[in-house]
Every structure is written in C-alpha cells, then in structure tokens.
Design a protein that fits this description.
The protein has about 475 residues and is an alpha/beta fold. The protein has three domains: about 150 residues, Rossmann fold (3-Layer(aba) Sandwich), CATH 3.40.50; about 230 residues, tm_1862 like domain (pyruvate-formate lyase- activating enzyme), CATH 3.80.30.20; about 55 residues, OB fold (Dihydrolipoamide Acetyltransferase, E2P) (Beta Barrel), CATH 2.40.50. It contains 13 helices and 19 strands. The strands form five sheets. It has a six-stranded parallel β-sheet with strand order 2-1-3-4-5-6, sandwiched between helices. Strands 15-16-17-19-18 form a five-stranded mixed beta barrel. Strands 7-10-11 form a three-stranded parallel β-sheet, sandwiched between helices. Helix 5 links the parallel strand 5 and strand 6. Helix 1 packs parallel to helix 5, helix 8 packs parallel to helix 9 and helix 12 packs parallel to helix 13. The protein starts with 9 loop residues before the first helix and ends with a strand. The model has no long low-confidence stretch (mean pLDDT about 95). Bound molecules: S-adenosyl-L-homocysteine, iron/sulfur cluster (SF4) and FE3-S4 cluster (F3S). The site of S-adenosyl-L-homocysteine has 17 residues, from strand 13.
Length: about 475
Amino acid sequence: MERKTPLISAEDLQRQAEIAEYIHEFWQKQGKTPVAYVETYGCQQNEADSEQLRGLLQRCGYGFTDTAEGADLILVNTCAIREHAAQRVFGNVGALVHTKRRHPGQKIFVCGCMMGQPEISERMKNSYPHVDGIFSPHHLWQFPEHLYRVLIRHKKAWAVEDSAGAIAEGLPTVRTNKRKAWVSIMYGCNNFCTYCIVPYVRGRERSRLPEDILNECRALIAGGYRELTLLGQNVNSYGKDLGLGTDFADLLGQIAELDGDFVLRFMTSHPRDASHKLFDVMASHEKIAKQFHLPFQSGNDRILKEMNRHYNRAQYLELIAYGRSLMPDIVFTSDVIVGFPGETEAEFEDTVSLIEQVRFDALFTFIYSPRPGTPAAKMPDPTTKEEKNRRFDRLVAVQNAISEEKHRAYVGKTLRVLVDGRDGDFLTARTDGGRLVRFAGDDDLIGQFANVTITDSTTWSLVGTAAP
Ligand code: SAH
Ligand code: SF4
Ligand code: F3S
C-alpha cells in the first residue's frame, strides 16, 4: 500500500529555514534580541504545537518572556473544543489591543484549532484589526513565512485554507519541560464523533513513520528526558495510513525496548480501536506506565450510537476487565460528556452506573457544548441548562467520592515516582499511574525517580515522605 499522507518536501522546509535565517539577521542588524510570548489553550497536542512554534521563533532569533506586556511578538494558540474556551480566547485577544498600544511595534498572531473554523477566523480577521496574522494548524510549519510577511513586508498574514493535512518532519522544538516530552506520533482524526470539532480543524489521520518516531525518542532519552508521552487524537489507529504492518501496540513495544531509564505514556485511546494486544504489550513492558486514559463519553448505548462512537457499554466494560485481568493495579481515567442532545434522565443514570461499576481513578467531566458545523449541533436538545448543570454536579460528586476512596487506599504504600517540580514547601511528583504526589525534599530530586511512602490523601492528590 502506498503512503497516503503527503510529506512537506525538504525544499519547502529549507525555504522556511532560509526565511527564518533572514529574520534572525534582520534583528541582529538592529542589535536586538526580540522576545515572544506564547499563550497556549487546549490539549497536549496544542502544547506540542506550541513547542514547535517556539522552535521556529527561536530560529527567527526570538527569546521568550512569560508576559504579553512589552513582548515583541504575541502568539495565541487556540482551542475550539468547547464554547467556553473560544469565548476566553476572544476576550483575551480583544484585551491585547491595550497591550499593543503601549508597545506599538508589537506583532500579534492567533493560530490553532479555532483558526481552522472559517466563521471564527473570519470574525478574528474582521473584528480584531490589531491582530497581524492568523493561521490554522495546517499552516504551522510555514510560520517563518507568515512572520516575514508581517514583520518585513508590513502586511497582514492570513493562512487558513483547509486541507486533509500533511506531515512536516524535523521542525525545531523548544520544549518547556527538561524531563518530560510530548512526542506526536500522528495528527488529525477520522472518527467524526458527532459532537466534536477536531476532525474539521485538524484534518485526516496521518501517522509519522516509525523510524522518525523512534529516532526522536532515542534523542530525547539521550538528552536526559525521563518521561515520554506519545500523542494523537486516537493513537490506536496509528499506522493505518502507512500500510507498513506496524500498529500502535507494535510501536509502543518498540519504544519501550529502547535503552535508558524512562517511563512511557500515551494518549488518547479510542475504545473502538483499543485492542487486547495493546494491553498485552503494556503488561509485558516495565517502562510503559500502567495508566490508561480511555474516554467512554456515555454509559448508554443509544447515546453512544448518536455520538457515532462505534462501541457499546458492554464492549467498553470488557476492555476494562481485560486490562485489569492482566494488570490488577492499572489506573483507568476517562472523559465523559453530560447533556448530549436528547439525553434522558434514565440515559444519564446509565452513565452514573458505568462510573460506579468501573471506578475510575480520575474523570474529566464536560457539559455538552454545541460546535457549529457538527451533526450534534443540529439535533433537538430539549434539556434545560439547569438540568444539565444538575447532572454535571451529580456526576462530579459520585466521581469525587470514588477518587477519594481510591486515593485513601494508597496510604501506607511505597511507590516509585518521577519528581517534576516544586509547589511551595513540597516537591510534586507523579506515580506510574499518573497520580499527583506531594512530599518534602530537595530540589536536586527534580527530574529524578524517587521512592515515596504515602502518608495521607485528598480527592486530587497523595501526600508522602521520601523513602530510603
Ligand atoms: N480524541 C480524544 C479526545 C479529544 S477532546 C478522544 O476521542 O478521546 C477531549 C474531550 O473533550 C473528549 O473526550 C470529550 O469528552 C470532550 N469534548 C469533545 N467535544 C466536546 C463538546 N462538543 N462538548 C463537550 N465536550 C466535548
Ligand atoms: Fe473528537 Fe472523536 Fe476524534 Fe476524539 S475521536 S478527536 S472525540 S472526533
Ligand atoms: Fe482543542 Fe484542538 Fe486540542 S480543539 S482539545 S486544541 S485538538
């Protein structure tokens, strides 16, 4: 089978690198190191994109600042998943008009998933004249060219044409964390869940080649990274477009066999494509964290069908049971939507009962938010906002009680954790299962694995002391 996904050619990437070099020289001639402020909304995929944008900015000669005030360039990387996120972006971008007034040379770019929605990018273009450039995720790799247009040619840059998407290998990256790295293994989504905007703004599923991913992982491990998280909207369909016979479970196993002391995570898995083979690979590799984020969205079969999820409650429960049969301590987390159009009280109760049956360690609960252009946005939705809020509160209360109980069961255990930072008097760390742990210790433990005995717990986290 021939590879379906177009790769951005070496010549095209070289051209962008040359434009970046030109911009770098432009600043050098002025004897100035400009600074950029990058603000990121949304999921890990967007975080990873922002790291590449930082890489491209660095190539253009920019340093970084953590405030919009006085920055030479502001880049807002947006998320379109729910209405609320979009509203915040409009509010914050609107407020930048004042920031720019105080620093007239400032250039403002808005990118990310919202810019993949034509009516939104139009609104940004027409109603926010202080914005200099906008581009959708498909046009990220051309950022030097957008910047050149704005900075050198004094024009606006708009790059929002839709496409199925391509892959740009070898873009520079400035990672925000020195020990934990995101590794995108694929882009886009083919699932078209009826509520979701992602397939419209990020294009079709396309996988990076296994050797490109393995090389990136090898370099990260050699560079001292201790945690690698493989990213994709549906990692379980990795490789289908490549036709190489390598599926996600194979790839995960190959990365887990690399030399070095690291922990390997992945997200997100779609239950439709989660295979027993994947659980088998997890169980047989020590370096793969025993944590599985498996969004179920609803516990009711009619709603799952309306959502176009292609699995039912029984199949979902079977996956959980299989995972636990191999790895009794596996940590399951999930996403759930309440108030999908037409969800009845009884159908909502099926979601509650699924939560009680599975007993997730943590759950991300969302109230359904209509996304223009998606099929669900056209479905009749008679349930009131108040009723949806009530269902939401009930779900959160049920889950909090479960999380609290599950956390309490850790007390007395000694666990190996990866220390990732400091919060006040405590170091913060994550267990293999991804649970947050706080304990007292020296900063030189940050970035290292440590053993911690759990002494106390809350709904959200564990408290411990360093163990010998
Ligand atoms: N690709 C991932 C999830 C991406 S979005 C997956 O399929 O699992 C993260 C979560 O946001 C989803 O799992 C879903 O629970 C939620 N979400 C997506 N669209 C939404 C919408 N329109 N309203 C409310 N929540 C939504
Ligand atoms: Fe959205 Fe569904 Fe794709 Fe996840 S799998 S990104 S929820 S369409
Ligand atoms: Fe948001 Fe785009 Fe991620 S819509 S959740 S940033 S893929």
